[in-house]
Amino acid sequence: MNMKKVLLLSLFFAFTTLAQAQTVDKKWGFGIGAGAYGTTNNSGIGLNPELYLSRYVSTRFDLMLKGDLGMFNSKLSSDLDMATAFINLRLKLSGESKSFRPYIFAGPGFIADNSESGLNFDLGIGAKYYVGPATAFYLEAGYINGIETTTAGKTNTDNFWKATVGMEFDFGKTPDADMDGVSDKKDKCPNTPTGVAVDANGCPIDSDGDGVADYLDDCPTVAGLTSLKGCPDADGDGVADKNDKCADTPKGVKVDAKGCPLDSDGDGITDNLDKCPDTPKGAKVDEKGCPVDSDGDGIPDYLDKCPTVAGQKDNNGCPAKEVEAKKELTPEQVIMQNVKITPVHFVSDKSYLTDYSKSVLEKLIKTLNSDKGFNVNMYGYTDSQGSDNYNIKLSQDRIDSVIKYLISKGISADRIIHQKALGKAKPIASNNTEEGRLQNRRVEFEIFKMK
Are β-strands 154-157 and 117-132 bridged in parallel, bridged antiparallel, or unpaired? Predict the structure, then answer.
């Protein structure tokens, strides 16, 4: 078996056992082509079957193991006239994203013909055109340095040119750990969950560009917030618009799970408007959220035992209980105090206290507060106008007005020991003049201590 046949068989075995894919994803390529061989001295032209195995090295270079089998003479003899094997470095002149990819190649090799063999080199240009992700046509034109031979004492060197057309097939397993269809080398998101749609970089698709991938985005077609699973929040209350029942809540207002302003006490007035946010449940409130006080006595209706009549705080909102008239004490039971208290006077036929009368009563209140042992007796009077019975009742009403006022100021009813309505008795001035009658319309006080 001559050298050319050995080389042929070796090349065929290498191509059929190692040929697998190429590029960054498919790193091996297998090429098969046919073309024309020629010599520079025009000694003949023949067919050029070609096989090659290429290995991806980088985005710029491939390494190729190439074999050419030349059959010379126009008669196309069945004898193999020449065989070559080269290790070429292929310089790629365009990126992998292009369909048309030109290149140049060169490298050392081994050439053998019927009589001679030896080391050699080749170089050339070519281009590939991809018709599919892993299938391309290729066209090459190259030069092969010939073998020096001696014939009839004359040294000759046959140099060859060649032109080849063929196809390349790229194969191989592409590592894709997350099985998203993008190889690990290109995958910028290598841990994408199974079944999630991805872009060219292997990252989950984010249709609305809000930074939340569609498979996690509750609102994949509208840009939103990461904190709300990709949904927008127009009023900024922390509740996504799709769940917000009050989408125009003012900023800074606390909201419930539905995005509506909180109503902590459940009175129907939201906290941002409620002046009394701690109203007990069930209490009737006004437009400000405060408990209603129908009689205006400062005690809300839900606490007021007499909600329609103004009363006293210490009597659950009801008017002060009338102090029962107690039996007059004997001189032996009391110690009268030498404290002069000015009587209070009243408008004709009336029992209410004027502002001036209330100011006069402040001295009585201070006196009683100055010594808890002090007690008071009260005596009510009228002028001479009206019947006796009417004046007795009127004088009692005046005493009652004073007692209610004292109780409202914190004076205990137990310290009012004796009260007596005397009507028009014991005038202290003439009832014939208005000034005299005013002096007679009065309530007088006695301050004493119990023995």
Answer: unpaired
Q: What is the pLDDT of residues 94-125, one digit of tens each?
A: 887 788 999 999 999 988 766 667 788 899 99
Q: Are 208 and 217 in contact (CB under 8 A)?
A: yes
- Of the candidate ranges 86-90, 112-116, 178-182, the one whose mean pLDDT is the lowest: 112-116
Domain ranges of the chain: 3-171, 331-450
Q: Which pTM was predicted? A: 0.40
* End-to-end CA separation in angstroms for the chain: 153
Architecture of domain 3-171: Beta Barrel (2.40)
CATH fold of 331-450 reads 60s Ribosomal Protein L30; Chain: A; (3.30.1330)
Closest among 133, 138, 137, 88 to 110, alpha carbons compared: 88
Distance between CA atoms of 142 and 145, rounded to whole angstroms? 10
